[in-house]
Design a protein that fits this description.
The chain is of the alpha+beta class. About 40% of the residues lie in helices and about 30% in strands. A hairpin with a 6-residue loop joins strand 2 and strand 3. Helix 1 runs antiparallel to helix 3.
């Protein structure tokens, strides 16, 4: 299993917009395209960042899933619409790929 930690650096004042986009459209499209979200966080110290972890069988499955997601007309429309009121939401995205160590297994796995 491959895990991906994604860190979104949000433009100032756009946290509500990123939460709305994820809750209204993105998470449903992730599910449609086989992107399993394990957990989702916002910064506990107030930084305008969100963090989430996805699980994939391997890098090939991850890449194919995100390619299909990005090509989905529903995503493209939602992405464009979310920028109409206030401009871009995400300044940049960091992505870190992780493998679970064999000696720890969380309850949610």
């Amino acid at each position: 299993m491959l895990y991906e930690l994604r860190i979104y650096h949000i433009h100032p004042g756009r946290m509500a917009a990123i939460h709305k986009r994820f809750s209204d459209i993105t998470l449903a499209l992730f599910k449609k395209h086989g992107i399993k979200v394990c957990d989702f966080f916002e910064d506990a110290e107030g930084a305008e960042k969100i963090y989430y972890v996805c699980a994939f069988a391997d890098r090939g499955q991850r890449d194919a899933a995100f390619e299909a997601f990005r090509a989905d007309p529903a995503w493209q429309a939602a992405f464009a619409a979310s920028h109409e009121d206030g401009g871009p939401i995400v300044e940049r995205v960091e992505s870190v790929f992780l493998k679970r160590v064999p000696y720890v297994r969380p309850d949610w796995v």
